[in-house]
Predict the structure.
Amino acid sequence: MPQAQAVQQGRARDSRKAILDAAERAFADFGFGGASIRAIARDADVNQAMVHYYYQNKDQLFSAVVERRAGDINERRDLALDALFDNAVPALEDLVEALLRPTIELGHDVERGGDAYARLIVYFNNSADERSQRVAEENYDPIARRSIDALMRVLPGLGRAEAVRGYLFAISVALSVMAKTGRAARLSDGLCDDSNTEETVATVVAFACAGIRALADGRFENRQD
Amino acid sequence: MPQAQAVQQGRARDSRKAILDAAERAFADFGFGGASIRAIARDADVNQAMVHYYYQNKDQLFSAVVERRAGDINERRDLALDALFDNAVPALEDLVEALLRPTIELGHDVERGGDAYARLIVYFNNSADERSQRVAEENYDPIARRSIDALMRVLPGLGRAEAVRGYLFAISVALSVMAKTGRAARLSDGLCDDSNTEETVATVVAFACAGIRALADGRFENRQD
DNA sequence: TTATTAATTAAACGTTTGATTAAAATTCGG
DNA sequence: CCGAATTTTAATCAAACGTTTAATTAATAA
């Protein structure tokens, strides 16, 4: 049986982390079904049985990959929200930036492998299968609900349905620049470049805030006409 | 050898279509790697060798699934663009609606299986692997370029980079409501409902247009500050 | 040192995968 | 009704899959 993470000693840590890193890349590149444990073990330079030794099966390995990163992002988002609402009600721009920046910054952190995880978020965020929805619900629904409430406080004209829509739209826009499909560069003949973090944040925040304000102005849900 | 589609007779047509329908569902639900030809054949109620008989291999089957639908959507988008620019330069709202409506409507057409294809678009549109990028480039890049040009004509303040960004953001927002992940319903406690086509179109168009206008106002790319 | 535990290994398990084959059934023009 | 072309079938292939096992090595505690 593998020891709890805190008690682990010697070589153990390296293998455990190497497996998680390799799995992150594999799931991001090929999806759950397309990623193979054999290839993951090979990429991590580890015996194939070690994957099951530490993570039991493919499903739990997938969950472990998501949980490691989600903790980071949620913590940073929570702190940002606390700070924002400490004194008064912030501007919409500041709120939306606080929501999106942690994810965008992680996605740009190639050295830490954040780009692979960014593609993985895009994957399970847009997948309807049970496993994807489970990790989304467990790891991102709590902060999503808090963010939606925050949106409604900042924009009193925003109903709950519009706030949910606005939040999901904003996230979807942010994720679209992180999928690293190369399509933006292709369609713009190289004019678009996602590598500049600050420029990306500014662009996405501007787009999302304008969109959310539009949802607040017009009322699109539950119309009685 | 399978006959060309036009000359086909008898049950052939049925098998061919049944395979394509089943493959569409499988790829949408499980991704390329997670979908199995055996399960597709079983779902289509067809011998497993028939899949290779008509589509040679898994890759070409995947391409065939996309090509069938992309033709429809592109044709409708092209016609809409022709009509819009026939007399004068249209309003941004009309242009964006013309771009997004065909896809959204297809995604709501459950009887024709459009919901499965909608999820499939989301899949390969957000995937960075070679196969996904190939089908995106072959089937959707031409209309994307035409749409981007149209955006720049409607909004003269929009640079090429911003137009590409705006187009991709708008598409991404539209696709996010089509992934049918059930997340919107979950986060809104049932308040959000994607089944109303007109309401969905109106909401997405309003969000996207406001966002695109924001990109035109502020200049976010190639700043020299 | 010895006993215990954790980490790692190579090998194999049964199953499923994408793909191929050759024969059988069906369809259809002449 | 015949013969050729097309469609369908069952059987099979090697390869890859996720997972398990038993044995071995390395580290820790008594």
Notes: The first helix of chain B runs from residue 11 to 34. The domain at 1-56 of chain B is CATH 1.10.10.60 (Arc Repressor Mutant, subunit A).
